[in-house]
Amino acid sequence: MNDHDYEEDQNQGEAEDIVSTARKIDDQQLRVSKIRDGTVIDHLTAGEALDVLAILGIDGSNGEGVSIGMNVVSDRLGTKDIVKVEDRELSQSEVDVLAVIAPEATINIIRDYTVIDKKRIERPTAVTGVLSCPNRNCITNANEPVNTRFMVLDEGLQCNYCGSIVHEDEVPTYLDVA
Ligand SMILES: [Zn+2]
Description:
Layout: H1 6-10, H2 21-26, E1 38-45, H3 49-56, E2 66-74, E3 78-86, H4 92-101, E4 106-111, E5 114-120, E6 126-128, E7 149-153, E8 156-159, E9 165-166
Antiparallel strand pairs: 1-3, 1-4, 2-3, 4-5, 6-7, 7-8, 8-9
The structure holds zinc ion.
């Protein structure tokens, strides 16, 4: 049995009569409720859901509608995490940094309960405006109107201004979110 993806879940209502009971029971993703409009970040490696919330700056204090599935059974990944954010689509900067830490993820854009766009993310060549530089003396930490920019290299992300490297496992630490 394949790991069916979010689109099938969203469309399950329409296909109700041809969907077998057996399959529905097997459908672990139903543990996480459907959303009407927003973004579903699926196929995250187990444990990455919290990093995704950090990237999106979500801590629950702004009243966002967010559903999180952690360690959901997935045939493709063993277990996976899934994050659903209502009434929000990701900026390119957010997608870029997500691509660095969660290259296996897929992004589904939902409108009116239907997946209207599905994208597998691609590793970017640069990430702008989402990470802070670990070098305190870097111009990007000097209250200057300078956006951070990191080049994505094999060894990590390199600050465009001072050359400091943020290794991929350190990315969540340097997320520059409000
Ligand atoms: Zn720097």
